[in-house]
Amino acid sequence: MSVLVNKNSKIIVQGFTGSEGTFHATQMIEYGTNVVGGVTPGKGGTSHLNKPVFNTVQDAVDQVKADTSIIFVPPAFAADAIMEAAAAGIKVIICITEGIPVADMVKVKAYIDNKECRLVGPNCPGVITPGEAKVGIMPGFIFKKGNVGIVSKSGTLTYEAADQVVKKGYGITTAIGIGGDPIIGTTTKEAVELLMNDPETKIIVMIGEIGGQLEAEAARWVKATGNKKPVVGFIAGQTAPKGRTME
Q1: Domain limits at 78?
Q2: Is the whole model's pTM more than 0.85, yes or no?
Q3: Total number of domains in the chain
């Protein structure tokens, strides 16, 4: 099993024909990810990377049954892209975009609370289930299949943790980069819970950063639920923000 994405996920790329979308979609397709098309308003009916382009997410859902989206849309338009995906019935929305205004994300959070979807990000490296689906910007060759789940606020440390896990002879079920913005869709605790409930995941690596309470909330949840699986935690950073102390 896996969490969030797998070989059967039907993935579209919002911002498909832009430079970032093109580059990373190419990498995803080469990895073997089931990319079924992309969205660029005004270019519907054309093709890109030998995949169909749609004007809207709803068109992609209607025509190719997309259920997962990855977003490479500029910050000013990314919040609308997330809400468009949610409105169209996309179940897993992964937003890579960095620099989305906090006020925009407040609106997004309120909107998707009423939708049956899961947002990962924004400002995140994405999600990878090794050997099945790479929905993000992580270097796929680092990740090998195994039974260790990874949750990380830091993109770079996601790759570093995966590299160390693999070099020690283990492998990874799914790695989730949740992003480091003030308002994100999936919290550390929620990502840990997904992996805790995945029968193939036997141990969880949780990587946080100084600032905020997400890691502490996850740790309290793990303790309260009886710690069914070992969780290894690491908090990165040399200095805390002014006025902030670590618990």
Answers
A1: 11-120
A2: yes
A3: 2
